[in-house]
Design goal:
Length: 383
């Protein structure tokens, strides 16, 4: 991987000595488009606070963050972006949601570092910085290779992001035995999982074997029948791992359905997407071990602790990303001889931030994620 590295950015701010290169009194203006009012205002306020933490750590009066309100509305987002350009801003962190990107390709002279994790953006001036499906599937692909997993099925809910998952599967060329789209309605879901796992056939196999033994003359048939009566099914399935592209209660519904059909995480790998260390998963002991890609947990906890000490509240996930993006912009400006323009983002660069290692490529920030498992009610790092 080192041969592709042109720049390594330590967003723990080891690069602060570079600030001496900044021309005296010249301002590095970074715009910030977030919801400061309305139903998502808590998210926006948390992002603003995290950028303050970043500015404090950089400790250079030349850098200035200018926040503007999106109101979580595309038209207002464009209006606020135009106001930032009138102030001489050429780099903007945000907006926070994919829907707010609608009109921003009108501002060709501005580069937006959007916090969305969607990958359906074709605008040259918008770089999606969220932890996208491609990044997550690359980490899962690495884990599959590490564990020498041969037969994987992929389960995706019938929701809005299923096409994003499909594109990511194609782009990463992750090998799967078969892909399924499932209904998130728990009653319909269970029926689908029964079909996918061939549950009725395996259940019937068990009954047939018990009947066969009962009619047989085998000397040890009573012991064998007693052993079979403790089982739910008989016969294996044709996969050794299952990737579940889901979250929260819907994810738990899928793992519960798999357990109901006698598919255990003790025998098959249960893999899912980035869960941001959702502590409710620690209580789901029957679904452990559960594997997932994610950001650097240690750095996330350190950031959350520092944020709490400063603001007496915990940050949201987008705050963590925005903290890194401030450092990224600052570093690229320094490397670009204090010039702020779109060329800063055209070179293929690999960076290391609080979130972890990431690269800018094809108008996306692709994260090289760590990998964890939930086991024994703990989050354990694998790589």
């Amino acid at each position: 991987m080192n041969k592709f590295i042109k720049i390594i950015l330590f967003l723990t701010f080891a690069f602060l000595t570079l600030s001496e290169k900044v021309i005296a009194n010249e301002k590095i203006k970074i715009g910030l488009l977030v919801p400061l009012t309305g139903k998502n205002s808590e998210i926006g306020q948390s992002i603003v606070k995290s950028t303050r933490l970043a500015i404090n750590q950089i400790n250079n009066p030349s850098i200035e963050i200018i926040p503007k309100d999106t109101r979580s509305d595309p038209a207002n987002t464009l209006k606020s972006a135009k106001e930032l350009t009138e102030l001489g801003v050429k780099i903007i962190i945000g907006p926070e949601f994919n829907t707010n990107l609608t009109y921003l390709d009108e501002l060709k002279s501005v580069t937006f570092l959007s916090l969305t994790n969607k990958d359906n953006n074709d605008s040259n001036n918008i770089i999606n910085a969220g932890i996208n499906a491609r990044s997550q599937l690359r980490a899962i692909k690495k884990f599959i290779k590490l564990k020498k997993i041969k037969k994987t099925i992929f389960l995706t809910p019938d929701v809005s992001y299923q096409n994003e998952i499909k594109r990511a599967m194609s782009h990463t060329k992750i090998k799967v035995l078969k892909s399924y789209i499932y209904n998130i309605d728990p009653t319909k879901l269970t029926k689908q999982i029964e079909k996918i796992t061939n549950y009725e056939r395996r259940k019937q196999n068990l009954l047939d074997e018990i009947i066969r033994l009962e009619k047989s003359d085998q000397n040890n048939k009573e012991r064998l029948i007693e052993k079979l009566n403790k089982k739910d099914t008989l016969g294996n399935v044709n996969f050794d791992s299952v990737i579940i592209a889901d979250f929260d209660e819907s994810l738990k519904s899928v793992t519960t359905s798999l357990l109901y059909t006698d598919i255990s995480p003790k025998d098959k790998y249960f893999i899912t997407l980035n869960q941001w260390f959702d502590e409710s998963l620690l209580k789901e002991t029957s679904s452990q071990p559960l594997y997932f890609p994610s950001i650097n947990k240690k750095n996330y906890e350190e950031f959350s602790k520092r944020y709490y000490e400063k603001f007496n509240q915990y940050p949201n996930q987008l705050s963590f990303l925005s903290f890194d993006l401030v450092g990224l912009v600052y570093y690229l400006v320094i490397q670009n001889n204090s010039l702020v323009d779109e060329k800063m983002f055209t070179k293929k660069n690999l960076f290391k931030g609080k979130v972890g290692i990431f690269e800018i490529k094809d108008n996306k920030i692709n994260h090289i994620l760590n990998f964890y498992k939930v086991e024994d009610e703990k989050f354990k790092k694998i790589f």
